[in-house]
Amino acid sequence: MSEHSLVHEIIECDPEFADTQKFCDHYGYSLQESGNVLLVASKKGAAKFAACVVLATCRLDVNKTVRKKLGVSRISFASPEQTKQQTGMELGGVTPFGLPDHIPVWIDAAVMACERIILGGGNRSSKIIMAPAELTKIPHAEVVQDLAFPIPTE
Fold first, then answer.
1. Nearest-CA neighbor of 148 among 3, 40, 19?
2. Short-list 4, 12, 6, CA closest to 127
3. Structural domains of the chain in order of their starting residue, each with its CATH number
4. pTM score > 0.90 for this model?
5. How far apart are CA 25 and CA 38, in angstroms?
6. What is the mean pLDDT of the chain?
7. With contact defined as beta carbons under 8 Å apart, do 17 and 51 qualify?
8. Closest CA to 38 of 105, 109, 97, 116
9. Which residues of 64-91 are buried (b: 16+ CB within 10 A; e: fewer)?
10. What is the dihedral of CA 6, 29, 37, 127, to 10 degrees?
């Protein structure tokens, strides 16, 4: 991350609590300031991937916005195996930093409205806290309108 000159803080966490909901519950952080980095994959033709950064309170619009943006007819979330193979990271710790050049990083516009965002640290034992603007320092990163939509609350 030093290659991007990021202003950030690293938080160590127990790998048992790496998943977003568990992390927030255990360490007292808010889901409204937590994000997930979700890898999506094409299901037909040449393999295409994208890393999508969304708030934990939102659901990625895989079948419309993401599918169209990736330019594929069928898409799904990458499997844990595909995620590990493409990023070198495990679910619960995926970060948008240091990804291979063939994986674009798309940031939901709602993320940019947060004062700070908490994301995976590249492993299941750390998280990164930073201002969302720091994400735009990632090469091939793009802020995308309507990449995700809020999950309805009961």
1. 40
2. 12
3. 2-147 (3.90.960.10)
4. yes
5. 20
6. 94
7. no
8. 105
9. ebbbebbebeebebbeeebbeebbebbb
10. 50
Strands, E, within 5-64: which ranges? 8-12, 35-42, 49-55, 58-60
Tokens of 53: 């950064």
Question: Using CA atoms, how far apart are residues 75 and 53, in angstroms rounded to an integer?
Answer: 17
Predicted confidence at residue 2, as pLDDT, reads 46
Distance CA 65, CA 144 (A): 9
Query: pLDDT, tens digit, for every residue of 57-76?
Result: 999 999 999 999 999 999 99
Structure-block tokens of residue 34: 């937590």
User: Under 8 Å CB-to-CB from 91, ≥6 apart: which residues?
Assistant: 19, 80, 83
Token readout for 38 is: 């979700």
| Per-residue pLDDT, 1 | 47
d(CA 55, CA 129): 13
Distance of alpha carbon 19 from alpha carbon 95, whole angstroms: 13
The list of the chain residues with pLDDT below 70 reads 1-4, 154
Enumerate residues 6+ apart whose C-beta is below 8 A from 21. 31, 56
